[in-house]
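In this section we walk through a basic example: taking a raw amino acid sequence and producing a predicted 3D structure, encoded as discrete structure tokens. The instruction is simple. Fold the sequence below.
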Amino acid sequence: MKFFTKTIWVVIIAILPIPGFSQKKIEVTTETVSMSKGEQPAYIVQVPEANYDDVLKEWTKLIRQNTKSKVEEEGIEYVILGTEIESIINQPINIYSAIIKADSSSKLIAAFEIDSMPYVYNEENKDLQAEKTHHNIQHFMRDFAVEQYKNKVSEDLKNAEKDLKTKNKEHKDITKDIENNQKDIQESEQNIKNSQDLISSYTGENERKLSEINNKKESISSLSGDEELAKQAKDQLKTLEKEKRSIENKLEKENKNIVGYEADIQEAERNITNLQEAKKAKENEIRMQEEIVKKIERKLAGIK
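The resulting token sequence is shown next.
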């Protein structure tokens, strides 16, 4: 079944709002529209920013809440016959509705039948019951639109708060990385001091070992007439020279360690510089995200 002419479609899409943080005004209007049963008076409300699928799901759920009747899809219309909505009128009604999807909102159009006759509210020929029904329909449509709008903005708020939480965690991780690099620097500085202390100790040992070697060489030269004692002295000299090479290897190792520790410090300092810049940028992101959260909170509070 056809609901709207091509011209009406163009007009509807053209007036849809652009999404943003400003709160949208929700009004229910009446208009005669082309639908499957011909020209019918209908109530129209625009649900700002709402997802089409969510609006469709909740609307079809709402209009069949107190009845066993099913919502039938006929073309782009959603029709339910004999539903009971006490907040509108205390008798069965038929509802013919459609939801027009756009990028930033969904427009709900609904025509009502009471006693199988299109419901028309005539302001010039007012009837108390008719006027009450008219206002009830307006409230019914508007309350639904407000709830869907709130649901969407609440979801936006939830996502914004989630983003803020993520950014705060990232900021915490960056801060922790800075602290870890600072600890690495302190550890490397302590390691350098330890290596310097070992170098000082090994240098003293090396000097003493050199003195022992020189003394042993002198004693060997004085034992040239005693081959056995000379041989023992030469073996002792080899041991001393081996011990001296071991000390020199330790000295070389500690000097290399210092070079490595100094390189580690330089790398950690570069990391800290980069991390501090990242931390500052993340703090700016957090401030911006906090403002976004506040704006959405104000927007949600303003939806009435």
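Looking at the output, two observations stand out. The radius of gyration is 43 Å. Residues 158-208+246-302 form one domain. In the next section we compare this with other chains.
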